[in-house]
Amino acid sequence: MSSWFDYTINGLIIGNVYALVAVGLALIFGVSRLINFAQGSIYLVGAYIGWVAVMQLHTPLPLTIIVVAAAAALVGLVIERFGLRPLQNSVRIAPLLATIGISFVLDQLVMLTFSPNPRALPSQLPDVRFQLGGGTIGPLDLLIAGVGITSALLLFVFLRYSKLGWAVRAASQDRDAAMQMGVDVNRVNQAVFGIAAALGGVSGMLVGMYYNQIDTAMSLQATLKGVVAEVVGGAGNVPGAVIGSLLLGLVESYGVAVFGTSYRNLFAFLLLVVVLVLRPNGLFASTRQAPPEPLTGTFIAPSRPLRIPRWALAVAAAIFAVLPLFPVSFYVLQTLINAWLLGMLALSLTLVAGTMGQVSLGHAALLAIGAYTSALLSLTLNVPVGLAIVGGGLMSAALGTLLISPSFRLRGHYVSIATLAIGEIVSLVILNWESVTRGPIGISGIPPLTLFGYDLISPSSVYWFSLAVMVVLALLQGRLLTSHLGRSFRAIRDDDIAARAYGLSLNRYKSLAFIFGGFAAGVSGGIAAHLYSYINHETFNTQQSILALTVVILGGLGNVVGAIVGSVALVGLPEVFRIAAEYRILIYGIVLLLLVRFRPQGLLGTI
Amino acid sequence: MSNIDRRTLVKGSLAAMMAGTAFSRAALAQSAEPILLGISGPLTGPNAQYGAQWKQGFDLALDEIHAAGGINGRKLAYQFEDSQSDPRQSVAIAQKFVSDPRIVMELGDFSSPASMAASPIYQRGGLVQFGFTNSHPDFTKGGDFMWSTSVSQADEQPLLASYAVRRLGLKKLAVLHLNTDWGRTSRDHFVKAAKEYGAEIAVTEGYIAEERDFRSTLVRVRDASPDGLILISYYSDGALIARQARQVGLKQTICAASSVYSPKFLELGGEAVEDVHLGTRYFPQDPRPEVRKFIEGFKAKYNGQEPDAFNAYSYDAMNMAAAVVKIGGTDRRAIRDAFAKVKDVSSVIFGKATFDVESRRVKGAMNAELVVRKGQFTLWDGKPT
């Protein structure tokens, strides 16, 4: 019995920690309908500013908090002014991509300034412990809880009773109307970003002190958990974010209690999916609230795509096809093989995200399903590799569609969050289902690519194989887009109510899109597995999903050629920047930001 | 001789001088062009810290190698390519190295997915992949171009089990391990050895690398009522677990794998890591000459910073690479064959390292039983804590 009390306390303690990030995310989402992926990076910046203040300037705690809050707020204002405000009239998805780019840049700047080694950030509070159940809590636990709850309350009061708060809420409900009523929307946005960033910075510092440890990898984890907590509580709902965080902490803690530590995040993400399916607006959304994303069409604005003549495409394909006949280095070929593999994934994602409007952030899961299926089929059942890869594609199509089907009723950002969670769930199932997937040890000795009995071992043959598969998939997809199916997909994306009124069954078409997309992604994963010969649960991770989405947005949503161009660009750029060593991801982030800024509809435009 | 006028004399000596410089330049060009090693490892991304530590160890070893005259008069250098420990990038790097004729062998990568994905390319390209942190049991099975000085967990874990069970007298153990290929393999070897020595395993808990909060895990550990906690962790998560264990009031003996051996473990863990026991391959006061040279050289080069386990691995790896290149020259196949020929290479981790040609690994890692006392790693004096 006493253990359950301890699990509860521990869940609430960690929930406190999540709440600090979730509140900031909720505030920004509430106003700009934007999941701020840079929030974790501001949290990171705050932690390191705190380190400088404590270790170098020896400031006392209240001053440390003020310094960190002020510096982080400044970072937030800079992000808002130079990263996001220029995008406010562009496609809704552009700011989302911009925050991803900003988080790359901030994380890299911190890493370059402070080195990637973890540092100790000693707590400035007296080290007394209070006995509570079987464990103890310290003053820092109370301070974190205090900051979380107080900030949520203050924000609640601010939003409800202050004039600027009204402006914030008005702007979040209807930007244009608010502007007509004389609300300075830019000032509102500034205020919100400043507050959220200050909160994010302070929370990074407090959590750093809590663990006596800060390192540059803490940013992505903070964002992930914060997003889960925020959505569980109801996106944009500040007090809801606190309760969502506590609930998340409890579920994780009880999950550990019942099933063990390695299942912990599985429960966090299952909670998210369940909440999204049952109550898409979050647990604490009022029923009167308008749907969070009125129409998917406003999320992805169609633009005029760049028409590339067919002969030009044919010439480009021919040039790439004969490339290995010329004396190019294997390194160039390998880089292009990576681009073709990413291209298949991007084709899949551009279909479901661009053409269908279901922006998936968990696409790496489809790769993983394809890869594991193909690897296991060829290893344990001795299925020929060519067939095994097709099997991987089919399994990915079937299982992927089945797993993602609960998110079919969701819209806009919620689809992204649900798919993000499903992606994490797949990865955790692979980690824990040892009898099939061999768990963390992974699968080694996967046979190399063969086709009709011929080994494809030389880089040129792998190159031709992956290029051919990608081109076939691209042609099929191009054909699909011009058929009535493609038109139906786009109709659902642009206006699902009108599409339904026209007699289109949304779920059926969404399933069809995911089946086709899942197949392409699964084939890509299958080829990768045979190419690498070793895979484990880390091979296909969240970063891969985010990369795929970046490719798709960069190339132009729904644009088949754009997906391929984007893949070549995003595989190629980091390789080109190799010369810059530690700086290359920083440069990559900046290039990404510039692209979003000056070509938000993607290089080739949305179709 | 008298009819040789001054001008011819000057001309002649000038010509001789020019010929002399030209000659020495050619000779210089041959010896000044350094022998190049390729490194594939993380400089950015979540594992960037380990890449940074590798560099420190490499650079120290290179300084010493050059001070001792280099490789038969030639310098040794490395080209570090950032893979972010991502298999997609490590395979591209592998092709890059394989097709670059200046690269004579490759070192790395850090994680198993990144390293083993690149192995087929190195094997087919005939370039040695020398993985010095690759403990995955299948790493060297990738082919005869895969060699590793990573301490096999089949060797290390029984030593740790012996320390915990036989020497510290722990009878009922809770094992917390990183849920990666390394952590899992280590756990399995540890559990097997500990049971052989007569201990009972009360509970094992695997956690993912990004985990920060262990309080609920520690409740599970407490409920299993062990008399000792075994941490199969790296230093950052090891320090977190130790801190939280003490915070929730667990007072059991903690015994950790050698991978926590780092000054950062003491810095991050603070008072909570006091009395933590750990088995390591070397220790600060170690009298072995190769260890003294390593530690003193490291402190002198890096402003008094104490080296850690990953610094030692990369330092040893660079020294091993130098020894291999000395025998094998710059031919890639000869270098592979030289791995089987090197004998008793001075090593911080192994004392004297010689490859077992069958497994392409080195056996017989050194063992020291340490404990943290007054915030320092010290040799365990046999007193219970």
TrEMBL record, chain A:
Signal peptide (UniProt feature, chain positions): none
CDD domains reported in the protein's UniProt record: TM_PBP1_LivH_like, TM_PBP1_LivM_like
Cell compartments where the protein resides: Cell membrane
Membrane topology of this protein: Multi-pass membrane protein
UniProt entry tagged with the keyword Membrane: yes
A Pfam family hit: BPD_transp_2
Lineage summary: Bacteria, Pseudomonadati, Pseudomonadota, Alphaproteobacteria, Hyphomicrobiales
Domain of life of the native organism: Bacteria
InterPro entries xrefs: ABC_transp_permease, LivM-like
Keyword Membrane in record: yes
Chain ranges passing through the membrane: 12-35, 42-59, 65-84, 96-116, 136-159, 191-211, 254-278, 311-333, 339-357, 387-405, 412-431, 462-481, 512-535, 547-573, 585-604
Matches recorded under PANTHER family: HIGH-AFFINITY BRANCHED-CHAIN AMINO ACID TRANSPORT SYSTEM PERMEASE, HIGH-AFFINITY BRANCHED-CHAIN AMINO ACID TRANSPORT SYSTEM PERMEASE PROTEIN LIVM
Protein name, per record: ABC transporter permease
TrEMBL record, chain B:
Family as reported in the entry's similarity comment: Belongs to the leucine-binding protein family.
Pfam families associated with the record: Peripla_BP_6
PANTHER family: LEUCINE-SPECIFIC-BINDING PROTEIN (PTHR30483), PERIPLASMIC BINDING PROTEIN OF ABC TRANSPORTER FOR NATURAL AMINO ACIDS (PTHR30483:SF6)
Record's signal peptide: 1-29
This protein's record includes keyword Transport: yes
Name assigned to this protein: ABC transporter substrate-binding protein
Keyword Signal in record: yes
Domain Leucine-binding protein, first and last residues per copy: 35-366
Entry keywords, A to Z: Amino-acid transport, Signal, Transport
